[in-house]
Amino acid sequence: MSCNSHLLLNGIEFEEVTIDFCKRENLSPEYQKINPMQLVPAIEVDGEFKLFESHAILRFLACAFPGVADHWYPADLFERAQIDSVLDWHHSNLRHGTTGLVFNSTVGPLLAGLPPNLEAAAEARKVLLASLPMVESFWLKGDGHFLLGRSQPSIADLILVCEIMQLEVLDEKVRKQILDPYKKIGKWIDDTRNATQPYFDEFHAVLFRAKEKLIKIRSTGSSDETKIK
Amino acid sequence: MSCNSHLLLNGIEFEEVTIDFCKRENLSPEYQKINPMQLVPAIEVDGEFKLFESHAILRFLACAFPGVADHWYPADLFERAQIDSVLDWHHSNLRHGTTGLVFNSTVGPLLAGLPPNLEAAAEARKVLLASLPMVESFWLKGDGHFLLGRSQPSIADLILVCEIMQLEVLDEKVRKQILDPYKKIGKWIDDTRNATQPYFDEFHAVLFRAKEKLIKIRSTGSSDETKIK
């Protein structure tokens, strides 16, 4: 979602190709030529250059296409390095925690037919709960609306906000318990959403459809999501 | 180690400050002003600019200091994006696997006095065992000596080789069992070592001293390292 938003926000022409994990399209030989790691997102430029890993894609798009505003990934090396620092920190912290919790507690068991992995979900929840205070008190320091106290969003805001948005698919009580203590994070999500409309809502529509589907699934059976501590 | 090697290889003047984890120096208020995440490495430039996360540091050093050869982090945006892709992939794969296995099976219980976490070590081992074939067959594709089939090393070679070198502290039988199937990886480690001497051996001396210490510790007691499957 962060990649699509970035492309639209900056007027970069592209053709969107949806990869359906439920139909295992990510495992197809055709897609593996683009990303042998079998994950999304990935891009193909001019039918030749292939690139995967969302951070690498956003860095590349910001630098390779004329007209992308400087605030997304500044040319100033000191500012750029700080944005890289957020992005690199994100992998083993906020990303590991969010993805691990969402997949092992919810998406795996309720949408993909996998057995719940409560131990992995609990470990990921710990990482997430240790990461959120660092976002709230360190990365959102200062009076700016965005990460690093900046007045305009960078690719790091797109990446980290889209990550936290994944928590929407959790049981609502669990999600509120996790996120409610963090007022600055709540405001920052709103600020990033406002700065990237209408694309933010457009790309998160998929997520909210999954959320609705999960509410129905939960209403007809039991789920282990609230047991994870 | 990758950061120090890069600084020395490229003639960038610096003062090295060792942070002793056994003495909990990483938790000191003074160090937290440089890296609030309490981890190494971190740099301070001209007493003002502070930066942490090894990938972000190496990108910054390659761009900010004159005289760093282009092959370390090429100015060409397509080449640079591919190096970024390796680095971003590394976080949740090779790095997660190596660090998790080494810490939970060996460094934690045998050096830091923590209880072994065999479940976390086993999960990390799985990630490592899934990552190594991707390095061998995908990232080391082609005839070049280095990642992405390149003829000269990049910052990604420094980072990934230094990561794999951490496996030296494992029980030797376990280490050989993990690494021996990967002949291209073995040659690539040698090539990277040769391309970065004498700094490679100089900075890994600390690791080999830890390895010797662990051999003595294992000879006087039991260890759970070989139980992790």
From TrEMBL, chains A, B:
Organism superkingdom: Eukaryota
Domain GST N-terminal: 1-69
Boundaries of every GST C-terminal domain copy: 76-217
One Pfam family linked to the record: GST_N
PROSITE patterns the record matches: GST_CTER, GST_NTER
PANTHER family registered for this protein in UniProt: GLUTATHIONE S-TRANSFERASE T1-RELATED
Identification of the protein by name: Glutathione S-transferase T1 isoform X2
Taxonomic placement: Eukaryota, Viridiplantae, Streptophyta, Embryophyta, Tracheophyta
Gene name of this polypeptide: LOC113702948
